[in-house]
């Protein structure tokens, strides 16, 4: 297979300033024709090469109105053109309803829609499918009016009307030049929630969210989030929306979260639809976060786009950072930061530590679809956040202003972004750029020595970056580390500063420190690194009560729990008392926000404990984590009961406090259940039945699903009956069972894969069962290897339909080197079995072969 390398980038030879597309839409057979103006770049020469894919064949090809000679070279249509500017017209035919890959033009639940990023447009029309070719589009669609009364595309609606034989047409024009990955159209029988937004310069923007008629009531939250995002981007980044229309369409079959097509965002319905009965608080937050993310792309992605796909983090890292800032501003900064760091540690740290590790700006790929990763997105966002931390909000904003002005209407690079930051701030960021090229999570060792005689504290910091595939030797990185010292006697803060670490080893001296200091480090998680300190359990417990940085305070409890679990897993037992004391004190602190307390009470996941061990022992981890949960439940039974009662309200409200209370309540319920409270199952069943919202209902179901009480089966059956017609909620039914901590989970998951509601064709459903199961460390790593076999079978079956989504399921098997030899061999054997399967997609081939390398 062909490897694409960053160093091979060459600018396009032919440009396509305009393209007029005509679609005659039909699910079985859609004809597409394009008329493009093509121009040879100054000083360049050579044939016009147009990418195709998915078996696309030209029906007719004309140049300047005359039938033309053409040839195929692989999937490319090649034309030798005599002059420097021509009009090229091509007609093709495609079959949307046969498109199971969900890339290009496809059918979903009776509607037709597109997904073009990264390389889907070539499955619709022959074109230079690369982000640095920008064109002005007009799109004319005709379709059966009864089946497809709504016809949408990018930009402004400029014409339409009825035709005979029950068909109608619509034409759209997008005045902004864009790369083809931002092209979109939708045709369907859709209802619209209409609203409007007045921009700060007084322009009215018509907003529309399109769904099936019956789902329209569930779009209120998304619409509110959209309007809030538009206002926020004006206030915080000075970015105003630029078209008269902004539409969003929700579709049921979608490979990922959503897509930022210019003026016509297309969403996985799970990130649009929300009402109290069907969506959890986490779903509400995700809806707002993704709506904001896609909206923010209008500037960070669309007005300024990527030169090539190696620059993906230019738009994704920056836009994730922007959506994180937005969500923090809508609620609690501390809770949002905790959630974002938890997601980074759960998804990105393991990626950075395994065979698929890559820098946020990768160097090569077989299939770009495999690089929409937690590294490019979430670590990418951390890198932008560090720039914000290093420069400060004001200079950072000057940098983004300069970046947007300088590059508006063009396709550019990550380096250009950092250049703008440098030029606007006057700061030298050359060393900082290593974050774009070096993979691996840096480790920082911190040790604090108190020299009582001199009233001095001496902090030694040492950093190292682990070797990753293709990168053996690493240079020290620039690490902004927020630090503070607290007096072990009074809890008073003795010092606070930000150290910008640049070297492998640095020493910081704090003068005038007479009381014994305790170190608080990487406060607010100022650098995406792993910190090792020599702080004792007592010091951590102390910080958990006294640190004035909420993240650091959370982190102190988490570190204490993690140390306890790692010790327990390694030695078979551990002292639980410091954790119990810290949790008791946190629960007793009436000043704390319930959402913050809830975050702090979440015991590190089994996978995260596994990530800390040289050899992951799933059974020992489950045993020790269960023991800690049981002790916390038992020892604090009365506290959990009180918390459960105090936070139990039966009237749904959507606000940060109410959300925090719901969260805390179900955590308390979980501890009551593991702590042996006799009425726990009854309480959970009561909560399940009486809930007026999905957070409470699914929370109770999750608690029951982990146990053996008879209420478990009753609740699962009731949940199924109530929601069998709602596919997004049914996904939760599959996920809850796949995450169950029972011994029979692998067997149950295999059974669920044969359930009539399970299907490989819907990515959400596939992830709800298979993706969730692989996150269940104990169950997935069943010593028999049946979990591995199940995953490999699912990947192979899904690969025949939808390679992109199949390939995303592979990474858990790539962790085989971290398991003991028997499991490692079983995992490796499944990877080898996949690799030996004929007809593998390049998506799956890349992930499997890299996992074995
Ligand atoms: N830009 C899209 C992701 C496309 C993924 C293609 N494999 C959504 C987003 O990040 O906003
Ligand atoms: Zn994005």
Automatic annotation (TrEMBL):
InterPro entries in the cross-refs:
Aminopeptidase_N-like_N (IPR045357), Peptidase_M1_dom (IPR014782), Peptidase_M1_pepN (IPR012779), Peptidase_M1_pepN_C (IPR024601), Peptidase_M1_pepN_Ig-like (IPR035414)
UniProt domain Peptidase M1 alanyl aminopeptidase Ig-like fold: residue ranges:
440-533
Q: Which residues form the Aminopeptidase N-like N-terminal domain?
A: 77-182
Q: Which residues form the Peptidase M1 alanyl aminopeptidase C-terminal domain?
A: 538-853
Which Pfam family is one of this chain's hits?
A: Peptidase_M1_N
Keywords of this entry: Aminopeptidase, Hydrolase, Protease
Q: Does the keyword NADP apply?
A: no
Q: What is its EC number?
A: 3.4.11.2
Domain named Peptidase M1 membrane alanine aminopeptidase is located at: 222-432
An MF annotation (GO) of this entry? alanyl aminopeptidase activity
Stored PANTHER family: PUROMYCIN-SENSITIVE AMINOPEPTIDASE
What NCBIfam families does the entry give?
Answer: pepN_proteo
UniProt protein name: Aminopeptidase N
Quote the gene name from the UniProt entry: pepN
């Amino acid at each position: 297979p062909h490897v694409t390398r960053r160093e091979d980038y060459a600018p396009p030879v032919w440009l396509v300033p305009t393209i007029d597309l005509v679609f005659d839409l039909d699910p079985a057979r859609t004809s597409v024709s394009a008329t493009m103006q093509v121009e040879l770049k100054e000083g360049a020469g050579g044939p016009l090469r147009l990418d195709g894919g998915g078996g696309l064949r030209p029906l007719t090809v004309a140049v300047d109105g005359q039938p033309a000679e053409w040839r195929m070279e692989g999937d490319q249509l090649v034309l030798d053109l005599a002059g420097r500017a021509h009009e090229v017209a091509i007609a093709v035919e495609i079959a949307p309803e046969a498109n199971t890959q969900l890339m290009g033009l496809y059918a979903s639940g009776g509607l037709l829609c597109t997904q073009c990023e990264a390389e889907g447009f070539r499955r619709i029309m022959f074109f230079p499918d690369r982000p640095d070719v920008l064109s002005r589009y007009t799109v004319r669609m005709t379709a059966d009016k009864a089946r497809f009364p709504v016809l949408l595309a990018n930009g402004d609606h400029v014409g339409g009307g009825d035709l005979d034989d029950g068909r109608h047409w619509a034409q759209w024009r997008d005045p902004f030049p864009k790369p083809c990955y931002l092209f979109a159209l939708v045709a369907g029988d859709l209802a619209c929630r209409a609203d409007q937004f007045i921009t700060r310069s007084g322009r009215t923007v018509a907003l529309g969210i399109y769904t099936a008629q019956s789902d329209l009531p569930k779009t209120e939250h998304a619409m509110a989030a959209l309007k809030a995002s538009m206002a926020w981007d004006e206030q915080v980044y000075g970015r105003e929306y630029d078209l008269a229309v902004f539409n969003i369409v929700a579709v049921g079959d979608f490979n990922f979260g959503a897509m930022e097509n210019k003026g016509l965002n297309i969403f996985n319905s799970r990130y649009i639809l929300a009402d109290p009965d069907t969506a959890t608080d986490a779903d509400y937050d995700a809806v707002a976060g993704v709506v904001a993310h896609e909206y923010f792309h209008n500037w960070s992605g669309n007005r300024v786009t990527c030169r090539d796909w190696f620059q993906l983090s230019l738009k994704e890292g920056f836009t994730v950072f922007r959506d994180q800032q937005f969500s923090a501003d809508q609620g609690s900064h501390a809770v949002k930061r905790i959630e974002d760091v938890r997601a980074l540690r759960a998804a990105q740290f393991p990626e950075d530590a395994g065979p698929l590790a890559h820098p946020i700006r990768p160097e090569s790929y077989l299939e770009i679809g495999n690089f929409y990763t937690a590294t490019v997105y979430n670590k990418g966002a951390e890198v932008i956040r560090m720039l914000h931390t290093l420069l400060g909000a004001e200079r950072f904003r000057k940098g983004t202003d300069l970046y947007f002005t300088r590059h508006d209407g063009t396709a550019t690079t990550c380096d250009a972004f950092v250049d703008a930051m440098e030029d606007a701030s006057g700061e030298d960021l050359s060393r900082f750029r290593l974050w774009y090229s070096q993979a691996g999570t840096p480790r920082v060792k911190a040790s604090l020595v108190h020299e009582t005689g001199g009233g001095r504290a001496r902090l030694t910091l040492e950093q190292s970056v682990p070797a990753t595939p293709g990168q053996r030797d690493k240079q020290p990185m620039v690490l902004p580390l927020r630090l503070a010292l607290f007096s072990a006697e009074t809890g008073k803060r003795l010092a606070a500063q930000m150290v910008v670490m640049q070297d492998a080893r640095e020493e910081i001296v704090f003068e005038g420190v007479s009381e014994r200091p305790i170190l608080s480090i990487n406060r607010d998680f100022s650098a995406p690194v792993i910190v090792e300190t020599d702080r004792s359990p007592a010091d951590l417990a102390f910080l958990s009560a006294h640190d004035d940085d909420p993240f650091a305070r959370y982190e102190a409890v988490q570190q204490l729990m993690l140390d306890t679990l790692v010790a327990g897993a390694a030695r078979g037992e551990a002292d639980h008392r410091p954790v119990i004391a810290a949790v008791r004190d946190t629960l007793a602190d009436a000043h704390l926000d319930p959402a913050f307390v809830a975050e702090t009470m979440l015991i590190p996941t089994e996978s995260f404990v596994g990530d800390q061990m040289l050899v992951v022992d799933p059974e020992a981890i489950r045993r020790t984590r269960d023991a800690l949960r049981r002790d916390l439940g038992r020892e604090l039974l009365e506290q959990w009961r009180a918390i459960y009662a105090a936070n139990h309200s039966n009237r749904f409200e959507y606000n940060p406090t109410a959300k925090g209370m719901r969260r805390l309540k179900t955590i308390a319920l979980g501890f009551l259940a593991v702590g042996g409270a006799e009425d726990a199952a009854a309480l959970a069943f009561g909560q399940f039945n009486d809930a007026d919202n999905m957070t409470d209902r699914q929370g109770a179901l999750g608690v029951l699903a982990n146990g053996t009480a008879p209420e478990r089966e009753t609740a699962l059956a009731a949940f199924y009956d109530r929601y069998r017609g709602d596919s997004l909620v049914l996904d939760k039914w599959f996920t809850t069972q796949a995450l169950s901590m029972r011994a029979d989970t692998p067997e149950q998951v295999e059974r669920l894969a044969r359930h009539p509601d399970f299907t490989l064709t819907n990515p959400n459903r596939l992830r709800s069962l298979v993706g969730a199961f692989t996150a269940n460390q104990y169950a997935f790593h069943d010593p028999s290897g049946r979990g591995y076999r199940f995953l490999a079978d699912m990947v192979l079956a899904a690969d025949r339909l939808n390679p992109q989504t199949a390939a995303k399921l592979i990474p858990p098997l790539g962790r085989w080197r971290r398991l003991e030899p028997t499991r490692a061999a079983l995992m490796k054997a499944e990877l080898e079995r996949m690799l030996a399967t004929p007809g593998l997609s390049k998506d799956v081939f890349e992930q499997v072969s890299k996992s074995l390398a």
